[in-house]
Amino acid sequence: SAVISQKPSRDICQRGTSLTIQCQVDSQVTMMFWYRQQPGQSLTLIATANQGSEATYESGFVIDKFPISRPNLTFSTLTVSNMSPEDSSIYLCSVAVLTGNTEAFFGQGTRLTVV
Amino acid sequence: AQTVTQSQPEMSVQEAETVTLSCTYDTSESNYYLFWYKQPPSRQMILVIRQEAYKQQNATENRFSVNFQKAAKSFSLKISDSQLGDTAMYFCAFMNNKAAGNKLTFGGGTRVLVKP
């Protein structure tokens, strides 16, 4: 299993500013994933964060808007840059554990409101 | 690319009754995992049940069971003896194999309301 600590749990930000979300895992994992959940919607993958290489972004998401760091095998950050009200969402980090019973574990999520 | 479809935006059920949530998916892969996750108002994603595609036997976890039809690409969740604590959003999710990165593709979700 994996325990993920994500912070902040929520924030209210001014448009045009940036917010960095942190994700700490209690074990070493190869890949970490960042998802966005817009209000009343499902989860959409933003990018896959690989240690030692650049993140891999999904269609519709770009590095300039969502820069990601992955300095080691237990930590990652996602920055939401130059925010607008359309960025108001829940952001979740996740890891996949493939030993034993395969499962994805999630952080508690960050509820971001941009005003 | 994989797609996951949940055709029921919302379901309500009386306490102690049974409810079935539908999920269909599309993939060209033969080896994959399917999951049902529960998301209560706390936002925490909680694994309800998993199914490995290579296993023909349907997974069960206490009051939760699935009907996995690989040929039909269908993966429904049955909640038996529904409890008030089952009220939440339920997401069906597909995980591809390791070579493709183990990322999850989610369905649109089904909101389940258990009524006393």
Overview of the molecule:
The complex is a heterodimer of chains A (115) and B (116). With 115 residues, chain A is mainly β. Helices cover 0% and strands 53% of the residues of chain A. In chain A, the strands form 2 sheets. In chain A, strands 2, 4, 5, 6, 9, 10 and 11 form a 7-stranded mixed β-sheet that branches. A 4-stranded antiparallel β-sheet of chain A has the order 1-3-8-7, with no helix packed on it. The N and C termini of chain A lie far apart (37 Å). The model of chain A has no long low-confidence stretch (mean pLDDT 93). Chain B is an all-beta fold. In chain B, the strands form 3 sheets. In chain B, strands 2, 5, 6, 10, 11 and 12 form a 6-stranded mixed β-sheet that branches. In chain B, β10 (88-95) and β11 form a beta hairpin. Chain B starts with a strand and ends with a strand. In chain B, 37% of the residues are buried. The mean pLDDT of chain B is 93. The chains are: A mainly beta (115), B mainly beta (116).
Short structural description:
The complex is a heterodimer of chains A (115) and B (116). Chain A has strands at residues 4-7, 10-13, 19-25, 31-37, 43-50, 56-57, 68-72, 75-80, 89-97, 103-106, 110-114. With 115 residues, chain A is an all-beta fold.
